[in-house]
Amino acid sequence: MSNNFQYYSPTKVIFGKDTEAQVGALVKEQNCKKVLVHFGGQSAVKSGLIDKVKASLDETGVAHVELGGVVPNPHIAKVYEGIELCKKEGVDFILAVGGGSVIDSAKAIAYGLAYDGDVWDLFAGKGIKAPGCFPLGSVLTISAAGSETSNSCVITDEKTGLKRSYNDNIARPKFAIMDPELTKTLPDYQTESGCTDIMMHTMERYFTNGGNLELTDSLAEGLLRTVIKYAKILHTEPDNYEARAEIMWAGSLAHNDLTGCGNNGGDFASHLLEHEMGGMFDVTHGAGLAAVWPSWARYVYKDCLPRFVKYAVNVMGVTPAATDEETALKGIEAMEEFYHAIGMPINFKELGIAPTAEQKAQMADSCAQACGGSKGSAKKLYRDDFLAIYNMADV
Ligand code: NZQ
Ligand code: ZN
After folding, report:
1. Taking the model in full, what pTM does it have?
2. How far apart are CA 53 and CA 388, in angstroms?
């Protein structure tokens, strides 16, 4: 039985080669006075994209200021800096040029501009709802987080190492410019981490014990098979435009809620587990997910067996074994083989982290704090379960 649902995906998508040239016109449509051009460390400057974006804004007569320097697992300090700058300059539209980290930093600035208190309040789990959000748009440079159409925003307090999310439909971007060509400069590790994250956004919605629609499942399985196919191609042919286009489109559809319509909100325990790893060890998000998912899957599969069997057969192409449990395990093994085939880790050692017992306990405590005690639909997990999964991944 499927659940009732709302599907809200208002972001205008402009997809294809050279679409970044339309950015000035798109921003102008928003009737704003001044734009903050927000970007990351150096890739968008080095590729000439920032110059192109500024030229397009100039052509359409849109005033702008800029703020770069967003780091992966973006910091709250940069958000504060952005809020100050926007207030001083009278900015009323934020344009993110980059990936999930830049878009999330832009979302947090947009929230902060509409909130009198400390914007971290929204992320700190105090139950505060954002009173508003300034409008934003993006020029996407990496297919991964799906933030270009999602309602989610993930920020790290670099002083405490806490990485926290805040979800609200008011932050869904006005537009997303998606030119697959722009992702060709990515290192393979980032491309494949992105593919892993994309799959995980749909897998989190797929492995549930509550409500499923056949159509939603078919969309999810088709998306997952597509990412598996093209992630492998990109591992050896990074310049393959068609593969980059398939992955980029999958990245948005995987996390704009389409592949969860009718379920019970999804599982999202793997993301919870990874966010603690990201906050403590600054690992790349998708790689962190690959390193923890197999342990999560082995820990929970018996409690969500029909879905694991369906996944094994329909997504991983496994021939059903004598028992459902064996089929499910073959599906998990096939995922591990896939991760290895695209250069992704399947445990902490391969990820390059070696947390102490104390650090694992700290991450498990923090998971429980962040989710208010328990998380998961495939299996409801508590603090000791989080710790058990970290221990399983720690080989
Ligand atoms: O800073 P620069 O120099 O631009 O380098 C970036 C960064 O080092 C580089 N990069 C981006 N585009 C490039 C490029 N390098 C060469 N060529 C290009 N075209 O890639 C690195 C990673 O960028 P980042 O934005 O961090 O990647 P991603 O999109 O994976 O975002 C990860 C962040 O998003 C959060 C993650 O937790 C993490 O903080 N997430 C956000 C979500 C959301 N808002 O909906 C959902 C996700 O589950 C995720 O949690
Ligand atoms: Zn993710």
Report:
1. 0.98
2. 47
